[in-house]
Design brief:
heterodimer, A: 245 residues, alpha/beta, Rossmann fold, 4-stranded antiparallel sheet, 6 helices, globular, B: 793 residues, alpha+beta, 4 domains, 11-stranded mixed sheet, 6-stranded mixed β-barrel, elongated
């Protein structure tokens, strides 16, 4: 069973407010023929503890939305608040440090650094952000790897792991600095269906553990995993439904 | 260890081939930088210390009749004089085997306190007995004699007297004996008298507290005036610069070489930048990922700068050994060339400090641009990066690439070569800079040889003889023409002159005590002469009507303040000032500053119809004929004081710069090595970045051998292009190096001379090196399976 949901609006987000608020966001890209509108007038809010799936066809604006939430791209218009920060106002020089603490990113192709072991990959965000004391980093990384079920592979390099194991390692890395938000771009796109199911289950656990998880995917068959389904088409939200499980 | 540091080390380890190339390139350049820093510092300091250690005279006054003990004591009390000595120098000859050698005898009284122009005794004792002399240590091979041997030294009549070598001394104020083709002997006035010469300490050597030119001249002139007031005639004043005769040349040339070595280091830095740029391009996505997990631009920049620092530091440390070996080796060779004994090999603190600073700072500074560019890339751009093919065809200028036609393989190789123009330019710049320096080194060396060859060819005479005293020209000609083997003979007059001014003021001479360096001569050759045919650089050579005309060689032009053709020049001989009209200037390889004039114009200084020098053209063995000429002259009552074969002059000229030419060639090779390493590194990057593309090609049917040939062809084309640019750039660079080298050596720029062998060598070397460098990468590319290449990220 699904029910439609409307976005909330507020002028000043508070801590009990949604973790993610997107207000009237538009994004256009310059192209030889003029400007291409990737997103237009998008309003979305995501609460903590919610696994939101953003779905749509290729070119619908899913990845653009995710990039805007992660501060990878800047909106042409509108506001983006993530974990109490006005992302659209954060200067470029501060974005990386903010992102490292506030957002965990998971990619379709895992994007683990090939020359580092799995544990070292997980320790890397802690190192860059200085969030965890040096002596605590490895125990914490092992703890996270244990949580995602691949602790025994901690000292292997990514190439030695299967696709599913690599994606779990990437999720552990995204959790390294305990960010309130997890953003995943086609996290199952490179996995077989059984493995994809286990990864989605993991995302759901994390969401229900208190994280705000936004997952972009072109697959609509996410029943049993997503709490909410936001459908984008031509850069606009065409449907926003809460999924009852 | 921090994960980011671990990543840096593992990245370096994963690219160890390229890292090794970068380390090698920097190490090669740093070996040169270190070697020249050491050599230049130690040589300049030790040469100055050794020269100053002799406490050379600030000025030497030639006093008619000599200086006795009483007069010397008075001179020591004159204002501005801190010490003084009375000495004598006699130029004669010594018989070595069946040849004569030039010999300078330095006469020092036994009771001389040896505080001025000091010698260091190496063996034997001072003073030598009457029948003995000491020789300068570098004169041993010239005289083919050592302590205990006997020398046949010519007296004023030409007759020889046997003198025993009782020991050796070190005289740091003299250039090496071999370079001057002169033996140096030290003996007492009694020993000199035993040879038949009149002992007369006519050289008054004074030491002044201040060594600057103005102070020395003021004091020397005041002492000369005082001596004149005492009724003593001062024939001339010599005040050479307070530095070793070859100091300026050594300092300038080692400075130029150091600049070459630093250029090689910058080149190596560019290589590092290019290689790192390529490596970072392959890591763009990783940079994006690191930024998504919190890495700031500053943190990434520090990681990559750390990598460069590790490479640079490793290379700098590795180069310490070769730099020390080459540096002290070069120091030894240059010290030998300057006749300097190295007393202290320790370099001052700033030498290792500069070495380390250069080794770290230059590669870091050059690599900073690509590193900053890579670290500043936005996450979005980094994540959008899809490999080497991205962007090709997006520029309007790319369209012409598709118009390139040829064979299938050559078209592909050519298009590949031109698709990444930035890297191609960098690779060509590396190859071209290395090659330009290589070819300019060879060109300069060839220009040097060509200039000396040409200079020697312009001297038609095979031997030059100096007579002990002037003799009638007819007597000389009559005696010489009777000798078989003499094709032509021209007696002439050569006088020691001093630049003077229009108001009759005679300038202080800059001649060193060896009577060679800094000398100024006035030579009256027959007009016309068939003995010399110097290259006229302005005006013309002397004509029959040029009674008071003068032609100056480049050194004389410089000494007289660059007069123009038509100007009057003033020279003094034995205190008499004469005026000449400058009719032309010539370029002369070797030889001192000389003013050439007509025999008539020197009649005021020497008896008309006499000569004190002789040029001869011979057939057969010149040395033998010269010996017969001497004998014939002796029979005619004309004593020969010195005989110099033109081929010996050539040896002397070559001796002066042999090490510098060798060093220039070594540096040229070093540059070439860095350039070739640069090509190897960039080709390796190119191949790595196209790994996926090769996979696609194999998937659609290309055989490994085809890919290998295509890559090698691309590298070879790069090598060919680079060598052509290098050859073109080498021309102006050769002119620049030739200008500097020529001015230091001869006072004139070396003419531009292109060494065809060098150009061909560079062409072959760079193309072959390019082929070999790319073959390694090509074989690796061809060995990969389709699956491996297509899965390459």
């Amino acid at each position: 069973m699904t029910r439609h949901r409307t976005s909330r609006s507020s002028t000043s987000p508070r801590t009990d407010e949604p973790v993610i608020q997107v207000r009237g966001v538009a994004k256009t890209y310059p192209v030889p023929g003029g400007e291409f509108p990737a997103l237009g007038g998008v309003d979305i809010s995501v609460d903590a503890g919610e696994l939101t799936a953003v779905v749509g066809r290729s070119g619908s604006g899913k990845t653009t939305l995710l990039n805007l939430l992660a501060g990878i791209d800047r909106p042409t218009a509108g506001e983006i608040w993530v974990a109490g920060t006005a992302v659209h106002e954060v200067p470029e020089t501060k974005l990386a440090a903010w992102r490292g603490r506030a957002v965990g990113l998971v990619f379709q192709f895992f994007q683990l650094l090939p020359t580092l072991t799995v544990a070292e990959n997980v320790m890397l965000p802690m190192d860059f952000c200085g969030t965890v004391a040096a002596r605590r980093r490895r125990p914490l990384a092992l703890e996270l790897l244990d949580r995602v079920g691949i602790a025994e592979h901690a000292d292997k390099v990514p190439a030695e792991l299967s696709g599913g194991q690599q994606q779990r390692a990437a999720i552990a890395r995204a959790l390294a600095n305990d960010p309130p938000v997890l953003l995943a771009d086609e996290p199952t796109g490179n996995l077989d269906s059984a493995t994809a199911g286990s990864v989605l289950e993991l995302f759901r656990e994390l969401a229900h553990g208190g994280k705000a998880v936004v997952m972009v995917t072109h697959e609509r068959d996410l029943s049993g995993y997503a709490d909410r389904l936001v459908t984008l088409a031509d850069g606009r939200v065409v449907e926003d439904v809460v999924v009852s499980t | 260890m921090r994960p980011r540091t671990v990543k840096m080390w593992r990245d370096l380890s994963a690219a160890r081939g390229r890292v090794a190339l970068m380390i090698l390139a920097i190490a090669v350049a740093m070996s040169g930088v270190g070697a020249l820093l050491i050599a230049r510092t130690v040589i300049v300091r030790e040469a100055a210390a050794a020269y100053a250690g002799t406490n050379p005279a600030s000025a030497t006054l030639e006093v008619q009749g000599g200086v006795d003990a009483a007069l010397l004591a008075q001179v020591r009390t004159r204002p501005g004089v801190t010490d003084a000595a009375a000495r004598q120098t006699v130029l004669t000859r010594v018989r070595v085997g069946d040849q004569w050698r030039r010999m300078l005898l330095f006469v020092i009284a036994p009771d001389d306190p040896m505080r001025v122009a000091k010698l260091r005794l190496k063996s034997g004792a001072w003073p030598p007995a009457d029948g003995e002399l000491l020789i300068e240590r570098t004169a041993e091979p010239v005289l083919d004699a050592a302590a205990g041997d006997r020398l046949a030294v010519a007296g004023p009549s030409g007759a020889t007297t046997e003198v025993r070598v009782s020991g050796t001394v070190y005289d740091a104020a003299l250039a090496p004996a071999a370079q001057e083709s002169t033996g140096y002997g030290y003996l007492t006035p009694a020993g000199l008298a035993r040879l038949g010469f009149t002992a007369s300490a006519d050289e008054l050597r004074i030491v002044t507290p201040e060594r600057d030119e103005a102070s020395v001249e003021a004091t020397a002139t005041a002492v000369a005036a005082w001596l004149t007031a005492q009724g003593r005639q001062v024939r001339l004043i010599q005040a050479p610069p307070y530095q070793h005769p070859h100091h300026s040349q050594s300092e300038t040339i080692t400075g130029m070489f150091l600049a070459f070595a630093v250029a090689a280091l910058i080149l190596a830095g560019v290589l590092v930048a290019a290689t790192l740029g390529g490596m970072l391009a392959a890591q763009t996505r990783q940079i994006g990922i690191m930024k998504t997990v919190g890495a700031t631009t500053g943190q990434l920049l520090r990681v990559y700068l750390g990598a460069v620092a590790v490479i640079a530091a490793t290379a700098t440390v590795l180069a310490v050994g070769p730099a020390l070996l080459a540096g002290y080796g070069l120091t030894g060779l240059v010290a030998e060339m300057l006749n300097v004994e190295i007393a202290n090999r320790v370099t001052p603190w700033w030498v290792p400090a500069s070495y380390l600073a250069a080794g770290l700072a230059i590669p870091l500074a050059v690599a900073l641009v690509p590193l900053v560019r890579a670290a500043r890339i936005t996450v979005r751009t980094a994540l959008d990066e899809h490999g080497a093919g991205t962007g090709v065809g997006s520029r309007r200028s790319d369209r012409w690439l598709t118009r390139l036609r040829g064979g299938r393989l050559s078209t592909l190789a050519l298009r590949n070569l031109l698709r990444n123009r930035g890297r191609l330019v960098l690779t060509l710049a590396l190859l071209a800079a290395g090659g330009a320096m290589f070819t300019s080194g060879l060109n300069s060396s060839a220009a040097w040889r060509s200039w000396v060859d040409d200079g020697m060819a312009r001297r038609a005479y095979d031997a030059q003889l100096r007579l002990a005293s002037s003799a009638p020209v007819d007597t000389i000609t009559g005696a010489v023409n009777a000798v078989d083997g003499v094709v032509a003979a021209e007696p002439f007059v050569s006088l020691v002159a001093t630049p003077a001014t229009a108001d009759g003021r005679i300038e202080v001479q800059r001649t060193y005590p060896d009577d060679g360096h800094g000398r100024f001569l006035l030579a009256a050759l027959p007009v016309p002469t068939r003995m010399v045919d110097f290259d006229v650089t302005a005006g013309r050579w002397l004509g029959a009507g040029d009674i008071d005309g003068v032609v100056l060689n480049q050194s004389a032009v410089s000494r007289l303040g660059d007069p123009r053709v038509g100007d009057d020049v003033y020279l003094a001989v034995d205190g008499v000032v004469g005026r000449w009209r400058l009719v032309g200037t010539v370029a002369e390889a070797g030889g001192p500053a000389t003013a050439y004039t007509s025999p008539q114009s020197v009649s005021r200084f020497v008896e008309p119809g006499t000569a004190n020098m002789l040029h001869i053209i011979t057939v057969g063995d010149t040395a033998t004929v010269a010996g017969q000429v001497e004998a014939a002259l002796d029979s005619a009552g004309v004593v020969v004081g010195e005989s110099m074969l033109t081929e010996d002059l050539r040896t002397a000229i070559d001796e002066h710069v042999a090490i510098f030419i060798g060093t220039l060639l070594a540096l040229a090779t070093l540059m070439a090595a860095v350039g070739v390493l640069g090509l190897a590194a960039t080709m390796s990057i190119t191949v790595t970045q196209r790994t996926r593309e090769y996979g696609v090609m194999q998937a659609i049917g290309a055989r490994p051998a085809t890919i290998r040939r295509m890559v090698v062809l691309e590298g070879t084309l790069t090598g060919l292009l680079g060598s052509l640019v290098a050859i073109a750039l080498g021309v102006p660079l050769s002119a620049l190096v030739g200008e500097l080298l020529g001015r230091i050596s001869f006072g004139l720029p070396l003419p531009l001379h292109l060494a065809p062998g060098g150009l061909v060598a560079w062409l072959v070397l760079s193309v072959a090196a390019a082929a070999v460098a790319t073959l390694v990468a090509a074989r690796r590319a061809a060995r990969l399976t389709v699956r491996e290449t297509l899965s390459y990220q």
